[in-house]
Amino acid sequence: MNEVYDVVIIGAGPAGLAAGIYAGRGRLNTLILEKGIPGGQILLTDFVENYPGFPDGVVPFELMEKFRIQAEKFGAKITQDEVEKIEKKDDLWNVVAGQGEYLTRTVLVATGSAHRKLGLENEGKYLGRGISYCATCDGAFFKEKDLAVVGGGDWALTEALFLTKFCRSLKLIHRRDKFRGEQILQERVFENEKIEVIWDSIVTRISGSATLESLTLQNVKTQENSEIKVQGFFISVGLDPNSKFTEGLLDLNEWREIIVKKNMATSQPGIFAAGDVCDVCPEQMATAVGTAVAAAIGIEDLLRKY
Q1: Computed over its alpha carbons, how large is the radius of gyration of the chain?
Q2: Cα 188 from chain centre
Q3: CATH number, domain 117-235
Q4: 3-state SS record for the chain
Q5: What average pLDDT does this structure show over 183-188?
Q6: Are 211 and 187 in contact (CB under 8 A)?
Q7: Crossing angle for the helix pair 183-191 and 154-163, to the nearest 10 degrees
Q8: Which residues are catalytic?
């Protein structure tokens, strides 16, 4: 803990690695802490086709590996450790993690988000036994099965389309009468013969024996209940920010996103936030990178005043 960093970046997803590139090029003594594998949530998708500069799309792992190499090329150090809290220590910040403590002049929180749960009884019971939050991770286990996906945003539509590579049929359940996802994804969903859309409905019960067997649905307009038989259920209802360790330290909004200013500074001087964990990023890789670049520039500007 004797070394003092210019910036400790928490999270090595697109935001954290992009910030690492800029901080490294700025000749800042930069440490990136990541509890898992560098790359973040984007690694759970099989293909990205809306990231600028790749007209034919790109495999997320390959892109994130380039991010990592570039960050390390400019001097950023990446260490596997899970942050537990951030605390003030004299005029520095002390980042407390599972394997050590790290003193730093500034901090960038880029911890991203995690899959939101429905909160239904048996949701945990059938996790890995029919329920999944990641089509890329588990889709291949459901060859020629009848599946369901719940959600109406980009993630849900993308998951549904991906699963049609394996499944026999797929029911896409959405609580509204229109999707929120990109128009091009909607067009692909409507054109896919394997997908049946069930509008104005929510899942109220998950049933089965050793594995998942059925879902009970309720129409939110008529209150009518129905049951569908499925062997797999993919929950794609959004993401929750990984901000719990900042509670009581940083100002959060009602969705527990970190509130940031124009230069991505938080309510605590010297702490910045970028990517899905903050309140100005619409859960897209391009915007995660953009906010991270803004944060890195803000950190450089602040450190010039030291």
Answers
A1: 21
A2: 23
A3: 3.50.50.60
A4: CCCEEEEEEECCCHHHHHHHHHHHHCCCCEEEEECCCCCHHHHHCCCECCCCCCCCCECHHHHHHHHHHHHHHCCCEEEECCEEEEEEECCEEEEEECCCEEEEEEEEECCCEEECCCCCCCCCCCECCCEECCHHHHHHHHCCCEEEEECCCHHHHHHHHHHCCCCCEEEEECCCCCCCCCHHHHHHHHHCCCEEEECCEEEEEEEECCCEEEEEEEECCCCCEEEEECCEEEECCCEEECCHHHECCECECCCCCECCCCCCECCCCCEEECHHHECCCCCCHHHHHHHHHHHHHHHHHHHCCC
A5: 97
A6: no
A7: 30
A8: 134, 137-138
Q: Tell me the pairing of strands 92-97 and 83-89.
A: antiparallel
CATH class for the domain made up of 4-114+239-303: alpha beta
The residue ranges of every structural domain in the chain are: 4-114+239-303, 117-235
Q: Are 4-114+239-303 and 117-235 the same fold in CATH?
A: yes
Considering the chain, what is the average pLDDT of its residues? 95
**pLDDT tens digits, 95-120:** 999 999 999 999 999 999 988 999 99
